[in-house]
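Known limitations

Files may contain more than one protein. Parsers should not assume a single record per file. Below, a two-record file is shown to illustrate correct handling: read the sequence, read the token line, then continue until end of file.
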Amino acid sequence: MKEGDVIVARCLDFTVSSHGDDEKDALKSLAEAVKEYIISAVENDAIDTIFDPAHDRYWRIYNESEAKQAVSSLKNFIRKSFKTVSNEKIFQSIADIKYAQAFVAFA
């Protein structure tokens, strides 16, 4: 998430966040912060208290982002798939679908 001139990265399972000049830097910094958070919990025998999930708002942002990426990946996959299929096969598939729809309509 961008805040001012920096990118803020937040761990959704722990109360840990960090920042950087770009996404890569922010994630690297977050990974180090999570590592230190867990080490500290282990050293202080507090491992049972470290799980503190983020508010629903942040999970919703994450899920929306994941869904957008999934749709984008699916679109790219479909585009690449259609590039490998000839027009003749596409038209034959359309004809097969129309035939199947007509058959089901009369059944």
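...continuing to the second record:
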Amino acid sequence: MRLPSVGPRTFLRLAQTSLVLVVLNIVSGASVRLTDSGLGCPDWPTCSSKSVTPPLSFHPDVEFANRMVVVALVIVLGVTALGALLRRPARRDLHWLAGGLVAGVLGEALIGAVVVYSKLNPFAVMVHFLVGMGLLSVSVILALRAGRAPGTGRARVGPPARRVAGVLAGVLALAIVAGTATTGAGPHGGGPGVARLAVPLDDMARLHSSVVLVAGALLLVELFLLYRANAPEPVQERGRLLLAAMIGQGLIGYTQFFLHEPAALVGVHVLGATVVWSAMVWFVDGLRMHRAETVPAAAVSAHGVDTEERIGRVAAIVSR
């Protein structure tokens, strides 16, 4: 029996749906910690040794809801990986990215088991979050590549701007690690009496903010280089949007610190971290010009006469 093929536009939608669910997984995981629901389900993958589902109680329901988000994520990523295999024209780069997402989310689920059975060990919780951010990186790249032709593209800026952007990405990654450690030293451990990192919260917060300030300074240098080199406006626009996201995230971070870490604001800060990092990946991707994908005539006839035009429009938007 001949398997159905998947068109580029359909696969792009699958990739975008995967990205949304990856972000939802990160935020819902943070809500478990921030509501002290980390031990609401003491077993894994079932909620308890006696029941698969949780009792009608707040903390177990919050924890189990996050597990259901993971289940939905695994299903969607599995469908996306299958879609990558059935996609026509075939793209090996999309095969690897989609397959990597499936492997990553399965690994994160196993780390979730370690988190539960270690009674929310802060190092295990940190690894769990950072793996989620790694999945976010891959899902953003997949969504970007799914809307254009394969290949590395042509450089739109000179080597100095590309080098500074690479250093900026590295420093921002360190800022996320430091922010994760700051949360590990903070009051929101996921449950009462949970162990925290043996580092004063004030010291970790200062370290985190210092790294963020270095990243901000590097971004200003990058924007200056782009302006002086008269870089294409879409490139400079992405840089300005990244700057706006970082400023907003910084304001949220300082506010939550001086208000003594209210849970709701910490949750907004976690969401902001996904926005900032996605904007960073998007900015680095935009330093190269990518072509719209050319769809063979057979694929056009199989998926509709106007499909190629729609794909071209989508690719043009993504490649800006």
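Parsers that stop after the first record will miss the second one. For reference, the second record is described as follows. The radius of gyration is 21 Å.
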